[in-house]
Amino acid sequence: MLKERYKYLDEAGTDEAGRGCLAGPVTAAAIILPQNFGHQLLNDSKQLSENKRDLLRPILEKEAVSFSVCHVFQEEIDQVNILNASFLAMHRALDTLEQNPSFILVDGNRFKPYPSIEHKCIIKGDGKYRSIAAASILAKTYRDEYMATIHQEFPMYNWIKNKGYPTKEHREAIRKYGLTKYHRKSFRQLPEQLTLDI
């Protein structure tokens, strides 16, 4: 059973998707839910099917007091590292909320403090608090949508299915075709550390 909130009525939940991927952005969402918002399907995005996430997304967008989604792309990930890029994505999502929250709930155990707003890190928070679960669904669906778009440009990597994660199929495609402009060059793309033509 997801908790309604941690502290304040106008607290924002934030979460990211795509941190462990070899290609594409890390994507974060921030959302403020209305008082007493609930939906029987709402849960951690990883516990939901793609169909259920896609069903919930427009409901969350319609009902939210405010929400925002932000991508940090591979070039910036390579410059600042993936942990800082994840914090950056969450900060930018918070920056672009139409309403400033009084408090921020963050999924995970680490966060770079956001200016002038108190936060709380919640380990596995996307399975504990509604606002974090909602943010996890928005981050996941927006990122998946982006990966489906760039799949059209490079279908041999099958990003529409693996979303850029290091599956066996994805790594076999990297061995065969090399890296694209969407791959994170600072990541260890293959276990054997091959030199790839970029």
UniProtKB/TrEMBL annotation:
Pfam families: RNase_HII. GO terms for molecular function: manganese ion binding; RNA binding; RNA-DNA hybrid ribonuclease activity. Manganese or magnesium. Binds 1 divalent metal ion per monomer in the absence of substrate. May bind a second metal ion after substrate binding. Keywords: Cytoplasm, Endonuclease, Hydrolase, Manganese, Metal-binding, Nuclease. It catalyses: Endonucleolytic cleavage to 5'-phosphomonoester. It is found in: Cytoplasm. Transmembrane segments: none annotated. Gene3D superfamilies: Ribonuclease H-like superfamily/Ribonuclease H. Its EC number is 3.1.26.4. A divalent metal cation binds at residues 15-16, 107. CDD domains: RNase_HII_bacteria_HII_like. Residues 9-198 form the RNase H type-2 domain. Its cofactor is Mn(2+); Mg(2+). GO terms for biological process: DNA replication, removal of RNA primer; mismatch repair. GO terms for cellular component: cytoplasm; ribonuclease H2 complex. It is an enzyme of class 3 (hydrolase). Belongs to the RNase HII family. Endonuclease that specifically degrades the RNA of RNA-DNA hybrids. NCBIfam families: PRK00015.1-3 (NF000595). PANTHER family: RIBONUCLEASE H2 SUBUNIT A, RIBONUCLEASE HII. This is Ribonuclease HII.
